[in-house]
Amino acid sequence: MNISKSVLLLKSRTSKSVLYVHNRINVSLSSCCQCLHNQNNNTFSQSRKFSSGYHFSHNKLNGRKFLQPNFFLEQSLKTSFTGIRQHNFPPDGSCFKGKDVYRKQTRNLSVTPKAILDASPKSLQPYLRLIRFDKPIGTWLLYWPCTWSIGLAAAPGHLPDLWLLTLFGAGAFFMRGAGCIVNDMWDRDIDKKVERTKLRPLASGELTYFQGLCCLGGMLSVSLGILLQLNWYSVVLGAASMVLVVTYPLAKRVTFWPQAMLGVTLNWGVLIAWSAIQGSIQTPVASLYLASVLYTMIYDSIYSHQDKYDDMLIGVKSTALKFGDKTKHWLTGFGTIMIGGLTLTGVALDQTWPYYTGVSITAAHLAYQLYTVDLNNADDCAAKFRSNTGLGFVMFIGIVTGTLMKTQKNKNDQLDNVE
User: Fold this and answer.
1) Residue 60 pairs with which residues in a beta bridge?
2) How many CA atoms lie within 13 A of 245 on its CB side?
3) Is the pTM of this model over 0.85?
4) Highest mean pLDDT among 7-11, 30-34, 317-321
5) How big is the chain by its Cα radius of gyration, in Å?
6) Quick one: pLDDT at residue 195?
7) Neighbouring C-beta atoms of residue 116, cutoff 10 Å
8) pLDDT in tens, 100-126
9) Which of 111-120, 245-254, 267-276 has the largest mean confidence?
10) Who wins on pLDDT, 217 or 87?
């Protein structure tokens, strides 16, 4: 039994779907492996699983047989094909003659989104991938600015409202999922032409348009239920964001600034969170919203550099193509204005030193990110993009701590006035 060298590519392709794996793993069976070969129907038995986490499948492509993943927790990310060559497929063909000849794979329990997806029923997995369940970075990037707004709107000396944090966390998950579905429905034909997106469920045909629409209806229904827990001002404000959610995917067809449109859409929750506490939109939240929009433009412009060559070929637009070699200069300008907006927000709300410490750390992170990112390296762009999850948390801690200390600062100011 021989395994093609293309097997070695799987380690760098584990994030791809099963169909992509099929294109990478070829197996030719030696004639002596009669224990697997069925002379009547010329297929392979699926009864025996291997320690690598793969089994022989009935699937055929161009007359070849393929190994297909057994999706159980952690296995698909930690498979070692050295183990297959050395232990599972002896060159003399004397394979599978005993039950205990080959090692059993250790299955480590994991609660990561990817592991949960892999352990889910096969029929559910395409829907989870449709809403990017295994890629929670988008949910975090939607959620953190909302927490900033909730923390800044809290009363001096008080922690942010835990119930609101929970509601907006759930809302971020469901609305991000809904946004992904809307995007994939608009871009189904475009996604087929882009290496990074061609295996998305709608683009690959794994799910139909109607199935995607039904999933979208479910996500929006839950999101509406969450929105109705807020005051009516916030409900109307939230409902207005649907215009942005539905039209955002069209921006890349007509303008080189789709990242700006994404920023306006993704950070709408900043306004909703503020109005949920204060009852309306007020001046301090305007500078926070502007800073959040610019923040989105920074990390999504870096992200869009992954697809810039595909975008040029298929004719869609992005700030990566607009800025070109001057991307870092543009993003440095955006970062400067963003930090200015956060500082202005702090001054308007009489924030204390922990808040400004958070702003300083944010500025240092952005400076380092822009200085070190290799815009021609897709992996580095993706890594820099993901690093913004931790940055959002740092800023949130600075806001919460700064708000808690505002009471002590106010008392000191009163004593100074008395003296």
Assistant:
1) 65
2) 23
3) no
4) 317-321
5) 26
6) 82
7) 14
8) 444 444 455 678 999 999 999 999 999
9) 267-276
10) 217
The sign one gets for the Cα dihedral 84, 87, 90, 93 is negative
**Token pair in block for residue 418:** 């008395």
- How many CA within 13 A on the CB side of residue 373? 29
Residue keyed to tokens 């807020």: 230
| Integer Cα distance of 20 and 23 in angstroms | 5
DSSP string, 8-47: GGGGG-TTS-HHHHHTT--EE--TT-TTTB-TTT--B--S
Which residue in the block uniquely carries the two structure tokens 């697997």?
36
Q: Residue 145, by phi and psi: left (phi above 0), alpha (psi -120 to 50) or beta? A: alpha
Which residue in this structure is represented by tokens 């380690």? Answer: 11
Distance CA 192, CA 213 (A): 19
Does residue 57 contact residue 66 with C-beta atoms inside 8 Å?
yes
Q: N- to C-terminal Cα distance for the chain?
A: 90
Count CB neighbours of 324 within 10 A.
Answer: 11
Cα 84 to Cα 103: distance, rounded to the nearest angstrom = 10
374: its two tokens: 């290799």
pLDDT at residue 314, rounded to an integer: 86
Q: What's the one-letter identity of residue 302? A: I
Place of tokens 């999922």: 177
Contacts of 243 by beta carbon, 8 Å cutoff, 6+ apart: none
Average pLDDT value for residue range 349-362: 96
